[in-house]
Design goal:
The complex is a heterodimer of chains A (99) and B (167). Chain A has 99 residues and is mainly α. Chain A has three helices and no strands. Chain A is elongated. The chains are: A mainly alpha (99), B mainly alpha (167).
Chain lengths: 99, 167
């Protein structure tokens, strides 16, 4: 399998994640789509790492995973705080800072 | 063999991803994402990256998704507030977004020629082993690795502050 196959798969996964990110109304669903987009990018990193026979792409994937873990933890804590204060999980109801 | 496995796990990842977006109930969406992540881990194994595949299973499918499932369990996922529809125009916006991204990237992929050969083809195989990654991580990428620990510390403190009950 060439690099191009993995890139196309990565593109399709990223597209599904991006469309879901816009479509979904639940904060947790939006987070799940975000994780999917991060994974699509990771897949293309590893594909390039294999193609160029260099380890740096995989190191970068490692860092992306660390940042994703931190992001998920903080984001879910914000979700819990939102649910406690507003009693909602809908992104439409958390619009105080919108213009 | 490799082709078959690629198409098998690629199709599994894609179907699981679409199922994640299509699910009404968020707990099923989370489980679909776990399936998708495991399929991507199998693709990492096909790409000769066993360390990344293991980390994917342990950290992503293990730790992060369990965190998600716990929060979903805590927050009453079947309440009516979640099932209410978002504004209608956003679905058109999503379709336009998808079409525009495809229209931008597909010509790029079509123009791609595999002229870019592997830079060190004689090494082959053992790039993604745990030993190799550890060696590079603790020599060339030592400073970013240490900065990562500060990031994790900030995240821990932030989570404790955010999730604390006001009294």
């Amino acid at each position: 399998m060439g690099l191009i196959h993995y890139l196309i798969l990565s593109l399709l996964l990223f597209l599904v994640g991006a469309v879901g990110f816009v479509l979904k109304k639940n904060v947790i669903s939006v987070f799940l789509c975000l994780e999917l987009m991060l994974n699509a990018v990771n897949l293309s990193f590893v594909a390039f790492s294999r193609h160029l026979n260099q380890v740096h792409g995989q190191i970068f994937v490692f860092f992306v995973m660390v940042v994703a873990a931190a992001e998920a933890a903080v984001g879910l804590a914000i979700t819990i705080a939102l649910y406690r204060n507003r009693n909602t999980l809908s992104v439409d109801d958390a619009d105080t800072m919108k213009w | 063999m490799e082709t078959t496995l690629f198409y098998l796990f690629g199709a599994l990842a894609l179907i699981a991803a679409i199922s994640m977006v299509a699910q009404k109930r968020i707990i099923y969406a989370a489980i679909s994402l776990i399936v998708c992540l495991c399929a991507i881990a199998a693709l990492y194994l096909l790409l000769e990256a066993p360390f990344i595949a293991a980390v994917q299973i342990i950290v992503y499918a293990g730790a992060i998704m369990v965190l998600f499932l716990f929060v979903i369990m805590l927050l009453d996922p079947f309440s009516t507030a979640i099932l209410r529809d978002k504004k209608k125009y956003l679905s058109y916006a999503a379709v336009i977004l998808g079409a525009a991204t495809l229209a931008l990237i597909v010509p790029l992929l079509k123009a791609y020629k595999p002229l870019l050969t592997p830079r060190n083809p004689e090494i082959g195989g053992g790039v993604g082993t745990a030993g190799n990654i550890g060696r590079v991580l603790f020599s060339e990428y030592l400073v970013p690795f240490e900065v990562t620990s500060v990031l994790i510390l900030v995240a821990i403190i932030g989570v404790v502050v955010l999730a604390r009950r006001r009294s």
